[in-house]
Amino acid sequence: MTEPRPGPETAAVYAGLEPAMRRALREAREAFGDEEVPVGAVVLDGSGEIIGTGRNDRERSADPTGHAEIVAMRAAAASLGTWRLSGCALVVTLEPCTMCAGASVQARLGRLVYGAVDPKAGAVGSLWDVVRDRRLNHRPEVIAGVLADECGALLTEFFAHRRVR
């Protein structure tokens, strides 16, 4: 579940995103504690301030759209008072699925950052590549693999824990 390590030219970009990814990891750990699949997300405004946070809550809320990305984007939109998240960055611990990748495009996010790849359902390059589809009207910048090992390890631990029960 990990991406290749960045080269020296992108190491500074990754380092700058680590604090936000660590916050997303805290959200993911909270989801784990709630027995939800441990995915966490934050939305940063143009100055890098967190304006929305989210974690998976499908089980608790009985909401099929209760993915961390959707929860965080809703919070950010409420904070800004608009659905347009232009200039904002979504930072999430796991590569978004088709629903969340599509919502990222629809929200006009400027950047999408994720940690671990999702070869089974990822829609930002693994299984599909929704956000880079030239037929769509918006394509956010994508940065993959930030703290990928930590993000992937949390998911591995969660599913190993579930198998033991």
UniProtKB/TrEMBL annotation:
<comment type="subunit">
    <text>Homodimer.</text>
</comment>
<dbReference type="InterPro" id="IPR002125">
    <property type="entry name" value="CMP_dCMP_dom"/>
</dbReference>
<comment type="similarity">
    <text>Belongs to the cytidine and deoxycytidylate deaminase family.</text>
</comment>
<feature type="binding site">
    <location>
        <position position="67"/>
    </location>
    <ligand>
        <name>Zn(2+)</name>
    </ligand>
</feature>
<feature type="binding site">
    <location>
        <position position="100"/>
    </location>
    <ligand>
        <name>Zn(2+)</name>
    </ligand>
</feature>
<protein>
    <recommendedName>
        <fullName>tRNA-specific adenosine deaminase</fullName>
        <ecNumber>3.5.4.33</ecNumber>
    </recommendedName>
</protein>
<dbReference type="InterPro" id="IPR016193">
    <property type="entry name" value="Cytidine_deaminase-like"/>
</dbReference>
<feature type="binding site">
    <location>
        <position position="97"/>
    </location>
    <ligand>
        <name>Zn(2+)</name>
    </ligand>
</feature>
<feature type="domain" description="CMP/dCMP-type deaminase">
    <location>
        <begin position="15"/>
        <end position="127"/>
    </location>
</feature>
<comment type="function">
    <text>Catalyzes the deamination of adenosine to inosine at the wobble position 34 of tRNA(Arg2).</text>
</comment>
<feature type="active site" description="Proton donor">
    <location>
        <position position="69"/>
    </location>
</feature>
<dbReference type="Pfam" id="PF00383">
    <property type="entry name" value="dCMP_cyt_deam_1"/>
</dbReference>
<keyword id="KW-0479">Metal-binding</keyword>
<keyword id="KW-0378">Hydrolase</keyword>
<dbReference type="InterPro" id="IPR028883">
    <property type="entry name" value="tRNA_aden_deaminase"/>
</dbReference>
<keyword id="KW-0819">tRNA processing</keyword>
<keyword id="KW-0862">Zinc</keyword>
